[in-house]
Automatic annotation (TrEMBL):
InterPro entries: DUF302 (IPR005180), TT1751-like_sf (IPR035923), UCP021774 (IPR016796). It comes from mine drainage metagenome. Residues 36-99 form the DUF302 domain. This is DUF302 domain-containing protein. CDD domains: DUF302.
Amino acid sequence: MSDYVFTVTSPKGFEATVQAATEALQQEGFGVLTTIDVAATLKAKLGIEERPYLILGACNPHYAHQALQAEPDIGALLPCNVVVREEADGRVSVVFMDPAAVLGMVKRPEVDKLGGEVRGKLKRVAEALRA
């Protein structure tokens, strides 16, 4: 367990978990701006076969705007990344960047508050995926 992420295990397969994560994020006001297929990139660039591993770049425009207004450089810490990966035993893990921890690096009370609110939303997404 790290200080900058939180993780849940999904009872679904990989593709179903990606779909469920995207839908649960939407329910909390997030859109997926980017999808990085790490496994496909490693295969194409290095010829390495890896288990499925996607990075979903999730953004809640309302909170992103507030954060950018408070600190213009905060864009370097956005979006909130959500990793969906298949483990060696076939389980599917969903790993969430903890916005409270990451945005806490800015050390500004208004940004800390936003980080806590966004963390709460992502925790609800995590719980929805665990079910």
